[in-house]
Design a protein that fits this description.
about 210 residues, alpha/beta, Rossmann fold, 2 domains, five-stranded parallel sheet, binds cytidine-5'-monophosphate, cytoplasm
């Protein structure tokens, strides 16, 4: 069973994906970490975020076993990730890795932006998890504050809106709900309510 979970930043998809993976005993890949790793490496090596060939080379050299989720979740990395993710050559370098993960025997849970549309259109279960920009900004703000990053709610909201626009507007694998994905709007739900709703949707699809 492949479970594909897509949605915008801070929609709750990551938590839902992790819990579904634990619940069903499936391996889980947070595909945003791949783009974040490329963005972080580009920032560290001072690679221009418009230099598609150089960024694709970084993506090709990525060691998926060496991803450090803690470091990659920093605010500045998300913006760089979204920029590198708009480049077709970067996405192409990360495609096989994700498809191989999805198609391993026994199944998998993947979350990202294009799992149900591009990476695993054949997935048995697809969820599109979303929430209002304001709700997502409040969550991300609390998360960043918890990490000791001091940033205003307005700045977080502006970053979320910019990323939404870039992720949804790009020509290559844009963020879009697959026609056969169940919609889960978590605006007025806490984490446990979101999880219960997701589990009910998955149960209905299986
Ligand atoms: O989900 P997360 O916020 O960690 O993703 C960081 C960025 O990586 C997103 O803003 C998006 O541009 C990109 N991404 C993507 N396709 C995916 C996962 C993430 O383009 N499957």
């Amino acid at each position: 069973m492949i479970i594909a979970i897509d949605g915008p930043a801070a929609s709750g998809k990551g938590t839902i994906a992790r819990r579904l993976a634990a619940h069903f005993g499936l391996p889980h890949l947070d595909t945003g970490l791949l783009y974040r790793a490329v963005g972080a490496k580009a920032l560290a090596d001072h690679v221009n975020l418009d230099d598609e060939a150089a960024l694709a080379a970084l993506a090709g050299a990525l060691d998926p076993a060496a991803l450090d989720p803690e470091a990659l979740k920093a605010g500045a990395v998300g913006e760089a990730a979204s920029r590198v993710a708009s480049l077709p050559q970067v996405r192409a370098k990360l495609l096989t890795l994700q498809q191989d993960f999805a198609r391993q025997p026994g199944g998998a849970v993947l979350d990202g932006r294009d799992i149900g549309t591009v990476i695993a259109p054949e997935a048995e279960v697809k969820l599109f998890v979303t929430a209002s920009p304001q709700a997502r900004a409040a969550r991300r703000h609390a998360e960043l504050a918890g990490r000791g990053e001091s940033v205003t709610l307005d700045a977080v909201l502006a970053d979320i809106l910019k990323r939404d626009q870039r992720d949804s507007g790009r020509a290559n694998a844009p963020l879009i709900r697959a026609g056969d994905a169940a919609l889960l709007d978590t605006t007025d739900m806490n984490i446990d309510e979101s999880w219960q709703a997701a589990l009910a949707l998955v149960a209905a699809k299986r």
